[in-house]
Each structure stands twice: as C-alpha cells, then as structure tokens.
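Hi, here's the filled form for the chain we discussed.

Project: internal
Contact: R.S.
Residues: 69
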Amino acid sequence: MSIPTPIEAAAKKYKNCAELNKDYKGGVAKDANVKNKGGKTKYAPFVSAELYKANASKDRDKDGIACER
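And the returned structure, exactly as it came back:
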C-alpha cells in the first residue's frame, strides 16, 4: 500500500456533489476570480485548481465552480 502524495490527496475525485459538499460546503472553484453565474449561494467555494479539475464534470453551469451551493 503506497502513501498518496499531496497532489494525489488534494485532487480527490468525488462521486457526486453530495459527497463533495460534505468536505467543501461551497463547492470548489478553479481560481479565486471566478464569479458564480447561478445566483445567490450560502457558502463561499474552496479554491483549488487541482480539485476543480478532478471534479470539473460536476460544474453544470460551466462557471468555474463545481457543486456550488
């Protein structure tokens, strides 16, 4: 059993938004300058390019934030 590197640990791919939102309530943004197109959200997104890239398929409105709420 190998120990994951920080990059592998940081870029966890989640099964769905419910799973991702357990760890990151506001979702994951690819950078700090993205603006949410979906209107008001309750939580600020966590900013991580690697994590966003691993979960980009969950960004339904293509605004640079996956699973925002």
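Let me know if anything looks off before we file it.
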